[in-house]
């Protein structure tokens, strides 16, 4: 039997797995949470998990620029991610980490930590287990989901946008002193892109079978509608296969 989840606006299949990748500032988190909410799916921000382990390293005195030290410590923290798109949560060793992981200090260190193969292996295993256990399906967003984490996802989407548009969005997300100036934010994003795209283990890349969506000139609502439509198309195909 093919089971569906009905919402006020949409109907989606119970076990559809959606991978959404792309660099920072393309609207991955906002889009993924909204889409998951509309379709009754779970939601997972994989970037938050890398931020969480980076925050743990910093607060526990681990030298984040020492790959050996990071590798040796990466199995110690217990990271738990809630998948409710209306109220996603993340804890580290039982402590709420949703706020601390967004600090400038964590942002500056997360690329170095996430580039360590042992870290990526541990977090990838965690992500796969969460996706596999999602009873109603899930939208998973990050930088290597379609390529590495969930290569067999039902749908892969790669969001892009100009560096200028992404910097403006990121500045809008930050507050106070962390907001900085637009040029500095743009340069920081470009630097992060280069680090993520050039790392040897699970680099940021578009999967060959991913649908690319350029969000530069789109409103958030337009991006959400585009992604929902793509998922509904894949869902219909999957429903037909399951019925047969």
Question: How would you describe what is shown here?
Answer:
The protein has 244 residues and is an alpha/beta fold. Helices cover 48% and strands 16% of the residues. It has helices at residues 28-39, 46-59, 67-73, 104-114, 117-132, 145-149, 163-173, 182-198, 220-243; strands at 4-6, 11-13, 17-21, 42-45, 79-81, 90-92, 95-96, 138-142, 155-160, 211-214. The strands form 3 sheets. The chain has a 5-stranded parallel beta sheet, with helices on both faces. The longest helix has 24 residues, at 220-243.
SSE arrangement:
Elements: E1 4-6, E2 11-13, E3 17-21, H1 28-39, E4 42-45, H2 46-59, H3 67-73, E5 79-81, E6 90-92, E7 95-96, H4 104-114, H5 117-132, E8 138-142, H6 145-149, E9 155-160, H7 163-173, H8 182-198, E10 211-214, H9 220-243
Parallel strand pairs: 3-8, 3-9, 4-8, 9-10
Antiparallel strand pairs: 1-2, 5-6, 6-7
Helix pairs in contact: 1-9, 2-4, 2-5, 7-8
């Amino acid at each position: 039997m093919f089971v569906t989840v009905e919402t006020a606006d949409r109907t989606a299949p119970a076990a559809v797995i959606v991978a959404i990748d792309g660099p920072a500032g393309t609207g991955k988190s906002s889009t993924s949470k909204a889409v998951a909410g509309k379709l009754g799916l779970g939601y997972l921000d994989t970037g938050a998990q890398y931020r969480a382990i980076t925050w743990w390293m910093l607060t526990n005195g681990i030298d984040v620029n020492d790959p050996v030290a990071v590798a040796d410590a990466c199995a110690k923290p217990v990271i738990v991610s809630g998948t409710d798109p209306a109220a996603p949560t993340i804890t580290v060793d039982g402590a709420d980490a949703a706020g601390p992981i967004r600090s400038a200090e964590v942002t500056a260190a997360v690329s170095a930590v996430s580039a360590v193969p042992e870290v990526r292996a541990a977090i990838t295993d965690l992500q796969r287990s969460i996706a596999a256990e999602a009873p109603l399906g899930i939208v998973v967003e990050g930088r290597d989901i379609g390529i590495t984490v969930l290569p067999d996802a039902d749908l892969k989407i790669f969001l892009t946008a100009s560096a200028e548009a992404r910097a403006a969005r990121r500045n809008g997300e930050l507050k106070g002193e962390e907001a900085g100036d637009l040029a500095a934010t743009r340069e920081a994003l470009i630097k992060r892109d280069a680090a993520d795209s050039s790392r040897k283990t699970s680099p940021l890349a578009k999967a060959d079978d991913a649908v690319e969506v350029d969000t530069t000139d789109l409103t958030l609502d337009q991006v959400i509608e585009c992604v929902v439509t793509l998922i509904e198309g894949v869902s219909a195909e999957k429903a037909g296969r399951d019925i047969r």
